[in-house]
Design a protein that fits this description.
The protein is 0% helix and 48% strand. With 65 residues, the protein is mainly beta. Strand 8 and strand 9 form a beta hairpin.
Length: 65
């Protein structure tokens, strides 16, 4: 699972109802996608349409500004 604006964070869930954020250390969220200086998405990144499961893995689209 993922959520957020400006940065996209990751979470896990065993039953897809209750989720727990993924942390790199207690209280520090794991950033899955962040803004890139000098690029089109330098101001904002956020989750886009639903991800697609393929034979090679998961494709996740995102919105950037």
């Amino acid at each position: 699972m993922y959520w957020g604006e400006r940065e996209v964070y990751l979470a896990t869930s065993s039953e897809l109802i209750d989720c727990s954020p993924v942390e790199t250390e207690p209280g520090k969220l794991l950033v899955g996608l962040s803004r890139r200086s000098g690029e089109f998405d330098r101001a904002l990144v956020e989750g886009g349409p639903l991800p697609v499961l393929t034979e090679k893995g998961i494709v996740a689209h995102y919105n950037g500004f």
